[in-house]
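Q: Hi! First time doing this. I have a protein sequence and I read that you can turn it into a structure. Is that right? Here it is:
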Amino acid sequence: MTNRQQPGALALVGSGEYTPPMNETDRFLLGLLGGPDAARVAVIPTASALEPGAPDRWNRMGVEHFSALGASVTPLLILSRDDAADPQIVAALRDTNLFYFSGGDPQYLIETMRDTPAWVAIRAAHAAGAVIAGCSAGAMMLGGYTLSIRALRNGQPPQWPPALGLAPRLAIMPHFDRAAQFVGEELFRAVLASAPADAILVGVDEDTALVLVPSENGAAPRWRVIGRQTVSIFEDSRRTLYRAGDWVDLFVKYREIRIKILPQFVTYRSIICVDLTPAWSYGGDRIPVVPRAVRNLIDWAMAAGRPRGVEVLVGPSPAATRHPFA
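A: Yes, that's right. Below is the predicted 3D structure, encoded as structure tokens:
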């Protein structure tokens, strides 16, 4: 079997970074790296850069928290795009295998990190197995869309500008159990109704995390809820509630799925998984993992027509993307 490094875990944290309620989550993340002795943690307070004194406070808390858990911790003050291009900071990021982004302003965080050497280094490390955790604004940054807090504060309708897209179809709402209190019930309902049509809205309660856990056997990773409260998933106006210990299967919503029966057997050397994970590729003799609905259709077509091969066309829009399966 071909050996290929999987991307590392993603942790979407509703609130509570560097506090005792998150010990369970953070021990779990450290365990994915082989334990505290194997971890090299960087705490990054970029989202709070515009709040005087906040970055130093978050970094101090982060160092104390992860040190108490037995890990090596480096506080990095990435407060501007210039900082995100600093060679010393980028070198430190390349020697890190757990990146933790604390809370603040999600749009400032996205604007500061996007397309910088720092973010390139973090993405490369994640692709090689490093863990990325984001709390509050840090979690919002990791989705495909982020709710514009600035627009809400200015009395504008809800807006969903692009985020950094490590979980490309997700729109993440932290502090979800208290969100209606923050903005009012009427605006809260308007925010839920305004989410992009192709997005899956994820509400993460305080002191709770939704963690994308890599598989040990080469299959697609799965999401797991950790913490004292719940995670809400909104799809097609339906809300599904998940509690600590629950596993959550999240897949891209496709508006069309077509099956073509091939006249002869065809093999494919590389297969892209149809999943919410960023570019999970499998080649050689790796087994592709696809959403149940697609797999069921493939099984049905194979059973009905007994062809020697099946080609599946799937896509989020009328212009389908080809995903072949041998």
